[in-house]
Structure formats: C-alpha cells, structure tokens
Write a sequence for this structure.
DNA sequence: ACTGAGCGA
C-alpha cells in the first residue's frame, strides 16, 4: 500500500532539511562578490553649486522650482528643461545656489520630497561641456 | 496624447 511510503517519506524529508546546517553549499547566494568595486561609475557628480532635479511633474514650471528650492537657500538660477519644439517640460530641471552649503541643504531638503504629486530627486549636477571660443556661431549666446 | 529615465540652448 501507499500508506507505508507516506509514513517513511516525512522521515527522509526531515533528514534532508536538517542536513542544511552547511548553508555554504546552497546555490542561492544573495551576497555580492567580495571583489566587486563599490562604484565603477558614480551616478552622482561631485559637490557643486548646481543641482540637477529629476522626477518633476510635467506641470512643474521654473517659477515653482525656484520657489520650492528658495526655502533652503538663495537660488541664483533655476530652470526647468522644456522641449524647444513641443514646449512641454521634459520632467527635470536645474537649480543653482549661491553657495555649496546651500546646495547641500537644498538636496537634503528637497530630495525624495513631493512636488506637484511627483517624487523629485535632487543631486549635484555635472559640469557642462565647454562653450568653446567666443564666436558668432557659439550656441551659448543668449542666457547666462 | 506628454506616456517617466535622465543632465540644460
């Protein structure tokens, strides 16, 4: 009968699970390799007065961005990146503080907070590419 | 139409 096998089955299963004392033989290793580099390519730039704000709502404008970040320091310049053709916001912007400590407070104060129903992320912006030489064809004419 | 990772005219 199959009843005898059913009695002997739990006995073998108990030995199977109790023999799991050595967890090093388990194929599932949630721990990362010890030789891994902590950060081969850091997603965050070095401390700077400029801040990169992402996760903005499509309805968030430059005025709203400066108004919110001005509560943590003096905002020298704030801009929400919008598309030139469509005119809609791309969902991220930049905020420049007067000093670096104000920029740090701005990140600590606005990073992970809600703005217009969206969780925004504030971090140090990367240095922009060189504008090149002063020429009439330079695209850096007009602002700042 | 703006949809959802990102680095700007």
């Amino acid at each position: 009968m199959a009843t005898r096998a059913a009695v002997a089955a739990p006995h073998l299963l108990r030995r199977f699970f109790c023999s799991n004392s050595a967890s090093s033989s388990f194929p599932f290793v949630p721990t990362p390799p010890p030789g891994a580099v902590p950060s081969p390519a850091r997603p965050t730039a070095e401390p700077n007065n400029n801040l990169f704000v992402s996760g903005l709502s499509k309805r968030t404008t430059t005025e709203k961005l400066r108004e919110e970040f001005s509560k943590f320091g003096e905002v020298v310049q704030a801009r929400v990146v919008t598309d030139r053709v469509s005119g809609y916001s791309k969902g991220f912007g930049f905020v420049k503080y007067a000093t670096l400590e104000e920029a740090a407070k701005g990140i600590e104060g606005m990073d992970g907070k809600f703005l217009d129903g969206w969780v925004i992320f504030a971090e140090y912006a990367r240095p922009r590419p060189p504008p090149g030489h002063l020429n009439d064809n330079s695209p850096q004419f007009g602002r700042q």
